[in-house]
Amino acid sequence: MTETKKLRRLKVLAKQYARANRIAQHVALDLVAEELGFPHWNKLITAIKNGWQADSEQMTGVEAFVTRALPAASFRNGSPEAMSRRLSYLEQAEHGMIGDHPYQLQEVFHDVIIAGDGWSITVPENPGAIPIVETLPDLGGECPVLDPEFLERALRLARDRAAQVRAEISIDWPRRSTKPDFGGVVRHPLSHVESDMWFCLHCNGKITGGQIAQSLWHCPGCGASLSTSLTRHFGPMIRASHSFR
Description:
- By secondary structure, the chain is α+β, with helices and mostly antiparallel strands.
- The protein folds into three domains: about 5-65, no CATH class; about 75-170, no CATH class; about 175-240, no CATH class.
- About 40% of the residues lie in helices and about 20% in strands.
- The protein has eight helices and twelve strands.
- The protein has helices spanning about 5-20, 25-35, 40-50, 55-65, 80-90, 150-170, 175-180, 210-215, and strands spanning about 75, 95-100, 100-110, 110-115, 120-125, 130-135, 185, 195, 195-200, 205-210, 230, 235-240.
- A six-stranded mixed sheet has the order 1-6-5-4-3-2, with helices on both faces. Strands 10-9-12-11 form a four-stranded mixed sheet. The chain has a two-stranded antiparallel ribbon with strand order 7-8.
- Helix 1 (about 5-20) runs parallel beside helix 4 (about 55-65) and helix 2 packs across helix 3.
- The longest helix is centred in the middle third of the chain and has 25 residues, at about 150-170.
- The chain starts with a helix and ends in a 7-residue tail after the last strand.
């Protein structure tokens, strides 16, 4: 398989993953890149242009990742200290059980965190971002969140709470900030500026009014929060270096 064919195959696999898990295509591309050891898709493309090639074993690994049963989530190792602090921080958390495993669930600065002994899942405020699963590496296969059924139940709990949080944010904002008019015009949530086209100063992305409203004022390209620090330059421009908290 030539490198061109491999790249085309990676794009097809990412598209399949995006459809199966109902996530944005750019998110799926980044996940495929992570499976190959790159932080995101653009870094993978740069490496390919510089001569890097995926071998057959790596391609097989990506195909296995795309077809595996686990719900869409980004997995990474967490540090024992950070995860211990996280559990201690969830003082007002809702407590419950998933099977034989206790959990704590709480909204923290518009993100939703569900955590237990040796694992945690963060569902970001951004509707287009995928959940982040952290586990302690020394638990290995004994960590309950690595079980597909357990993960699905934990994600359902966290996503249901995240839907409530996003609804509360939408209620606080003007209706025109989350519902474009017939021309696709939306209003910035913290000002009276309106437009059918917006620009992210973080990644230079160009975003329609419909896209920005659907993403709850996060850039569909880089995920930055775009609800603060509005400036002007050839139309409404949003500075994406700060988060709305």
